[in-house]
Amino acid sequence: MDFIQFAAVHGVIIERLDQGRWVRVRTTDKPSHKNGAYKWLGDVGFVQNWATMTEPSVWRAEGVDMAAQRAIVRQASLDDDRRNRDAAERAKWILTQCELKPHAYLAGKGFPDELVNVWERDGLMLAVIPMRIGGAIVGCQIIDDAGDKKFLSGQKTSGATFAIGQGVNVVCEGYATALSVRQALRSIKINACVHVCFSAGNMRKVAATLGRGLTIVDNDASNAGQDAAKAIGWPLWMPDAVGEDANDYHKRCGLFSLAMGLKVALQSMRA
After folding, report:
1. What's the rounded Cα separation, in Å, for the pair 248 and 109?
2. What is the DSSP string of 176-222?
3. What is this structure's pTM?
4. Which of 6, 39, 234, 243 is most exposed, with minimal Cβ within 10 Å?
5. What are the pLDDT digits (tens) for 126-173?
6. Does residue 196 contact residue 48 with C-beta atoms inside 8 Å?
């Protein structure tokens, strides 16, 4: 199996193969977004699908000296550690440049008055969501007015989260989903700590540190969210329409309907 075939097994679409650096690419489960990445080093390669994986998978060419391959992997790991540190420092700097204010992306999601870190760069107003592991900043998600989302180049994403509120633990993928869940639970007087995990695959990593809670998954055709929820083993809530997340459901069916669905899911958690 060559590297491109290996990537395809993991849902990562490589249309042109570049060598020596991480390259963002589309995935089969979310082909309209660059939700995957690869790094090809000739005899060794790495692929990452953020919807389904918590860590990159490693490909090794056949018939190549294993000691040489291990040396390549070790050096790549050292390079990634350096890039992780550089990205964390850049994220900290970006956050110092932000102001708390409303943002067009959140207005479109039904939260015109929600305050978020906004970074003005090259005439663009970018929402910045801090990403932490154990309280330490490791990176950030940057969202433009149209809802296009990016992580910083080189940043660590596995295990990273942004937590909103205090109370019963809830894990979900996206920031807008978290805001809808928070508002719905507040409407029925339930306090929650909603953990934005940024991908279905990462929900498993984050949930493993929390003990017990509720999983909110997107209803993707790929079943990535449902697979993650099964692995977590917590009660789950998912919108009934394929292609929707909790924020889509909130806008379509209303806050009360979302709150009642979450209440039922929480009751099953306590049973």
Report:
1. 8
2. HHHHHHHHHHHHTT--EEEEE-SSHHHHHHHHTTT-S-EEE----TT
3. 0.85
4. 243
5. 999 999 999 999 999 999 999 999 899 889 999 999 999 999 999 999
6. no
Identify the pLDDT of residue 68: 75
Element (H, E) at 44: strand 44-49
Which pair of structure tokens corresponds to residue 22?
A: 């991480």
**Buried/exposed 98-111: b ≥16 CB within 10 Å, e otherwise:** beeebbbbbeebeb
Half-sphere exposure in the Cβ direction for 270 (13 Å, CA): 8
Q: Nearest-CA neighbor of 37 among 71, 74, 83? A: 83
Which ranges in 97-199 belong to alpha helices (H)? 104-108, 175-187
User: What three-state secondary structure class fits 237?
Assistant: strand
Please say whether the beta carbons of 146 and 192 come within 8 A: no
Report pLDDT digits (tens) over 173-195.
999 999 999 999 999 999 999 99
What domains can you pick out in the chain, each with its CATH number? Answer: 3-64 (no CATH), 84-160 (no CATH), 163-271 (3.40.50.2300)
Q: Return the closest-CA partner of residue 48 out of 76, 75, 24.
A: 24
Among the residue ranges 46-50, 120-124, 181-185, the one predicted with the least confidence is: 46-50
Query: Which tokens hold the place of 132?
Result: 């932490």
Does residue 93 come out as left (phi exceeding 0), alpha (psi in the -120 to 50 range) or beta?
alpha
**d(Cα 67, Cα 216) in Å, to the nearest integer?**
44
